[in-house]
Design goal:
binds nicotinamide-adenine-dinucleotide; alpha/beta; 7-stranded mixed beta sheet; 440 residues; 15 helices
Amino acid sequence: MGLGRFRVAGAFMAERGKEESITDAEKKCHCRDTQGHFLDRAFERLHLEPAQCELLGSPFREVTISIPLTIHRQGGELLRTFSGYRVQHNHARGPFKGGLRYHPGANLEDIRALAQLMTWKTALVDIPFGGAKGGIAVDPKELGADELEVLTKRFSQKMAPVLGVHEDILAPDIGTHPRVMAWILEEYSKVHGYAPGIVTGKPLELGGSAGRLEATGYGVAYLSRVVAEELHCPVEESRVVIQGFGNVGSHVAQCLAGMGARIIAVSDSSGGVVAEAGIDIAAALRQVEETGCLEGLAGTEPISNAELLELPCDILVPAALEATIDCDNAPAIRARMIVEAANMPVTHEADATLRDRGIVIVPDLLANAGGVLASYYEWVQNLQEFPWDRETVLRRLKQRLLRSYTEVRDFAASQRVDLRTAAYELGIKRVVHAVALRGF
Ligand code: NAD
């Protein structure tokens, strides 16, 4: 096959290069900087030796691959090569565990920081996993389902040597969904035999767990209710703003609305909608299903993502990307509490500003840990070859999350620190202990 058939890369790459603005480049460093900042604070408080800090801050392994894909379009075929990543941060407490994201901005630095966050998260909620993260720099909306399948299977083939049911287990994240997990399962099982435990968040028919799809969002909602009550703001009287209406954001909205909260604004990447009287979440879900966006939802007004974050409310839930709350908009945030459904939605500078302003932040490594907890339960069910019912999964998830929250809250109070500092310290301490016991 001659290359003449393809409109090859050069022009396309040039277009992509132009698209990346200075802001994108700055944002790329955000995860690394924010994670580094939170980590340094915890290391200092834990009085760790420099050598220990270096070990804990370093990933165990990083893999970068190129994935060629022929894309079929009306004008002919286009050969593109996508970059894929998997960073395995630490496995002192159990196999590497973490999501796989498909997003055009996916890059090694962010994935490295997100992998590390997973290590502290799994330790904080005390499940026998380490931390990892992966991604492909691709906009999944640009590809057809067949193309996405081929891309996913090629990623799985090339990554296979470092994956395994007791080695590294993947899960959905931004831009990926149960079907993507099914493709990975299929590819991996070709070589290793039927191995449902290689991925979590897979379809129920293939060994997925009841309750996994909604677990992250429901966990965010459970914690929001508890923290709101402690702030003397019962959830039934709360006004809630949610940025991001994908898997996590939409389930937060459904669960909080079910508890009686008033969801006054929601958004996705195309923009948001606001209604002071409250949004009909079931209607919003139907509309997204039918049209792919929230725009024009009956009974609502349009609002930009930037304006949405600054709405006065009781509970603000960032459930989209990293760094959505930064030093520019932090002074304008008018929420009583922020529950970080997304990973690293608040930069470290914004974190300081918000703390100074008395806004309570439930940090990502606690707030969205319902996802990895349900993933753990799914993995256990796969190993046992014995499925649990939804009620059991969600009951255990709720108990474990609330236990972790109580630990963090009490530790924060005893040390006179914020919830994030306490959560990092508790998670890191467990990893340090495991590393010391294993002696590597
Ligand atoms: P998703 O792809 O299902 O949804 C992402 C949502 O964010 C979409 O509605 C998208 O339109 C919206 N979005 C993207 N860019 C935006 C922007 N600039 N402004 C406003 N909205 C924007 O992804 P998800 O699984 O819901 O993940 C969301 C966040 O939660 C991510 O930070 C992810 O790492 C984190 N998280 C997910 C899980 C999980 O189980 N899926 C677990 C823990 C943490």
